[in-house]
Write a structure and sequence with these properties.
transmembrane, single chain, mainly alpha, EamA_dom
Length: 316
């Protein structure tokens, strides 16, 4: 009876944590909102044809800077985990993202990538023992439709390799999101981000060297663009993102990624003179509704103390 009472008390405490505080959701949402500026910065400040090199320059210097601040290296199994997460969240994800962007119209690439929240829901079931909720699936589908309205054009063409790359990138980021939640880090969020960025940069270096020509001598605009993508678009935003994943369920955090195409569309309208159609405005509203719905799922079912396979495997 006492054990049952303690268990009930713990479950009540867990229920009180959900839905996540609005401040945590808003802070986490800043990350994908800022990521939406990547296309604008890349096309406006950086030379074309060096996606892997740009990805390396975005990740590695930022990771080294954070490492210099924390002065803490991984220990034991965390060497392996840092490289796995660095590859999933940065190296492979960015490589596939650029392949899909080069082979598909921007709207098609964004729509294919918008499948990520649905993949996160499935992986959360497999790796975190979270239930698959109809409301969460509905929010994911609603968000995909909103992104499609926001960025797709009537003449959009499909390229099989581009579509495959977009799907692979979405699955990679989904795995990274779920495993970031599953592998509870023993260090600060700053150190955790530093490890992943540095590992991701190390994995990108040989690929960029082998498959891309030498990067031209950077101009002042190039340096400004790389600094923004590295310090703001990588170091700062991933600090916010990984902080959020420690506080928000992956299935609720992933739909926040729908905000990236919203930012990209607004920047295109404000900075590149692109027009906004009624369909895009409706898509914008659908994306915001999807994000709201995804947060509502957190109040449906509490996280039980034994919900996580990793937690359940620990000795009592």
């Amino acid at each position: 009876m006492m054990i049952s009472s303690i268990y009930l008390d713990i479950e009540i405490l867990e229920m009180q944590k959900y839905p996540a505080p609005l401040s945590d959701v808003l802070i986490t949402a800043l990350a994908p909102t800022i990521w939406g500026s990547t296309y604008f910065v890349t096309t406006s400040f950086l030379p074309h044809g060096y996606p892997l090199t740009v990805a390396f320059l975005r990740a590695f210097p930022a990771g080294l800077l954070l490492l210099a601040i924390v002065r803490k290296l991984p220990q034991g199994v965390w060497w392996f985990r840092a490289f796995v997460l660095g590859g999933l969240n940065f190296s492979f994800f960015w490589a596939m993202l650029f392949v899909s962007a080069y082979r598909l119209p921007g709207g098609v690439a964004a729509t294919v990538g918008a499948i990520q929240p649905l993949v996160v829901i499935l992986l959360s079931r497999l790796f975190l023992a979270r239930p698959i909720q109809a409301l969460a699936v509905s929010a994911g589908l609603f968000g995909m439709m909103g992104v499609a309205l926001l960025v797709l054009t009537p003449n959009a063409a499909l390229d099989p390799i581009g579509v495959a790359a977009g799907l692979a990138g979405a699955v990679s980021m989904a795995f990274g999101t779920v495993l970031t939640r599953r592998w509870v880090t023993p260090v600060s969020n700053l150190a955790f981000t530093a490890w992943q960025l540095t590992a991701g940069g190390i994995l990108l270096a040989p690929v960029a060297f082998l498959f891309e020509p030498a990067f031209p001598a950077p101009t002042a605009a190039n340096i400004l663009g790389i600094a923004y993508l590295g310090l703001i678009g990588a170091a700062f935003t991933y600090l916010l993102w990984f902080r959020g994943l420690a506080r928000i369920e992956p299935s609720a955090a992933a739909p926040l990624g729908f905000l990236s195409p919203v930012t990209a569309t607004l920047l295109g309208w404000l900075g590149l003179g692109q027009s906004l159609t009624p369909a895009q405005l409706f898509g914008f509203a659908m994306v915001l509704a999807s994000v709201w719905l995804s947060q509502r799922t957190m109040s449906v079912r509490p996280i039980r103390p034994d919900a996580s396979p990793e937690r359940a495997s620990r000795p009592a």
